[in-house]
Amino acid sequence: MGNQNQEDWQALFGRFGNAEEADAAAEDVRAAERILNAWPAPQPDAKLVAYINAQMAARQRRKRRLARLSHAMTAAAAVIIVAAIALLGHGPASKPTAPMSYASIIPTSVWESDDVNAEDAELMYFDSEIRRIEAQMEALESGDDDIGPAGDVEEIEMELMQIETEFWKG
Amino acid sequence: MAENAELDRIVEGCKSGDAQAFAQMVDRYAGRCYGYFYRLTGDRDLSDELLSELFIRLVEKIGSYKGGVFESWLFRIASNIFHDYLRGKKRRQKLFDARRAQLQRVSDEPRQSDAKDEMLDRLQVQLNRLDADTRELIMLRYYSQLSFKEIAELRREPIGTALSRLHRGLKKLRELMQG
What we know:
heterodimer; A: 170 residues; mainly alpha; 2 domains; 6 helices; B: 179 residues; Butyryl-CoA Dehydrogenase, subunit A, domain 3
């Protein structure tokens, strides 16, 4: 293996000793490098290189999928939080609203799954559910009288909790 | 100059997730990094594993590369991987020693010699007679092709210290190979 980075060994060693010592040290280094050149290390074989390329591509796909999932989950969490805040504001004052926990651990199966199609279908389902709830929330906020005051709020709350449970179950 | 522009293009491609750029990165550095791992371990299977690990980490970490000498960044990761392996090996060695002591109490049969030793080339045998740190310094210098100043920075040690260690190590290696 030729060394592309030609170091000025004399100058380098010269900073720490006299010229004679620097010359001798530089010659030691050059002689040793000639030995290293004469005994090249083996190269990785073609199968290994192909395997590494495949591994890198798989890791890259996984990174992209994780980014997509986390983006979708951030959006879902934002909608759920907004919905919860709105529900707390609209619910009957005498009836305490059930506490909802939005922090959870994502199931390993979701992260490790390679079934992109299935994940896409799930994401589409959650997305459509989120949009439906958003529409209902907007109707509630706009004071639309078609929606009953307490019963429908509870119904939406139940739906939210159900979606949340389904989502984290994967 | 054109070389640097080409490398910059490959790095940018990797950052944007271009599979072709990753393949070019492997073509460009697999040989040198493999040589580095092989000369440190003397084991092809292990070098295969360490090289795979290096490029997987490259995919994970390429976003954190903010410029500077790319080889310095890459070989720092390679060095960390090797040290991680050494730490794991020490743990495994302790377990192995305990198990061997246990077995020796049970059986007095002589152990078979390690066939791998016979497969090592002469340079590898002599390299193994140097201390691990000096061996790594020599291999880092040889395979990374970084300037000595950059190597001292990578190892976070004064240039005089690193230079003196390299000189002693290479001088000893030369004597061993000529002896």
